[in-house]
Design goal:
The protein is an all-alpha fold. It is built from 13 helices and no strands.
């Protein structure tokens, strides 16, 4: 992380691994209840993969006060949200998941919550960035308290917006030298391995089967079965554990250039389009065909990797950029 290019490669590598975990996590989601190891992988992935993505997004939002940043965010984030909300509505109707065709922009479809929340996080920076670390503490408190509001859920992605905002704000607040000290210590590699391995072992042994909704952050404590004032303490502990795992993960990320590094620049394409592939697999392929691959972990990894490589390719970006970034197709020279 000593230079701009190395720093870019580092984060591109991190984003590629994270988008792979997104795809893999969604692929194994319907299979996890039938396989204990997949369930453990799923819960650990969902503990930190989106928070890590969100923190990196916040890290690169430091120029939010610059002229034109907000209008660019509307173009790059909010308008694509509306476009893909329409596309997903049509897709769900034709594959039989919805009985009638309707367009609801107030309740994001599936993974589109991230775009809507991302836009809100940028807006929240105008208030919280001024407060700096006091604002971070306040964001944690709000993230805990929002769980007591039964009405906060998928509507405008309000629950996830406030639950995950501390990660975005932390990314914004961290300076380069601070981040380097956290993830590039003398013993970064063994520390990162111990954190990830320890989390996998702990979750494999102790994670409750009915606690998955806590990792998603999309509903209230009451809707997750909690009715105690101490539920906020559980979320507070979850914040601490997630921060530890995020930095453990980031300690393991290499800064070199690899063939997949470029895909780290195109994760939005993988994120927006992988749902169509996975949902189609789930709706078209019968269960008796899926059952034999549940224990074939290498095949599941391979499928997830192929999805990332295809959707993160230059050709996909070239021909879908008008939808995703509201840009005309790239010339053959661009990347």
């Amino acid at each position: 992380m000593a230079s701009t290019s190395k720093r870019s490669k580092y984060f591109d590598n991190a984003k590629f691994i994270l988008i792979f975990l997104v795809v893999f996590g969604h692929l194994i989601s319907p299979l996890k209840e039938q396989d204990g190891f997949l369930f453990t992988l799923y819960t650990v992935i969902f503990l930190f993969h989106m928070p890590a993505f969100i923190m990196i997004s916040g890290y690169f939002a430091k120029g939010f006060k610059k002229k034109g940043y907000l209008s660019k965010s509307v173009k790059k984030i909010l308008i694509p949200y509306f476009i893909f909300q329409i596309i997903y509505s049509i897709y769900y109707y034709f594959n039989g998941q919805e009985e009638r065709l309707s367009f609801d922009f107030l309740h994001p479809h599936w993974s589109l919550w991230f775009l809507l929340s991302l836009f809100f996080w940028i807006l929240l920076l105008y208030l919280f960035a001024k407060l700096k670390w006091i604002g971070f503490a306040l964001a944690i408190v709000i993230g805990i308290c929002i769980g007591y509001v039964d009405q906060a859920g998928s509507f405008l992605s309000l629950s996830r917006t406030f639950v995950f905002f501390p990660y975005f704000l932390l990314g914004y607040l961290l300076k380069e030298n601070q981040l380097r000290r956290l993830i590039r210590t003398r013993y970064s590699l063994p520390i990162g391995l111990i954190i990830i391995a320890g989390t996998l072992i702990y979750f494999g042994v102790a994670f409750p089967k009915d606690a998955v909704p806590w990792l998603l952050g999309d509903t209230s404590y009451a809707n997750m079965g909690g009715k105690e004032i101490s539920d906020g303490l559980i979320r507070g502990i979850q914040y601490i554990l997630t921060f530890i795992v995020i930095f453990g993960f980031m300690m393991l990320i290499p800064s070199g250039q690899f063939k997949v590094t470029k895909i780290g620049e195109r994760t939005i394409y993988v994120y927006l389009f992988h749902g169509f592939i996975i949902k189609s697999i789930q709706s078209i392929i019968p269960e008796e065909v899926l059952d034999p691959i549940i224990g074939n972990y290498f095949l599941l990894i391979f499928i997830s990797l192929i999805i990332c490589l295809i959707l993160g390719s230059f050709l996909i970006k070239k021909y879908t950029r008008p939808l995703v970034e509201l840009e005309f197709p790239l010339s053959n020279r661009g990347g």
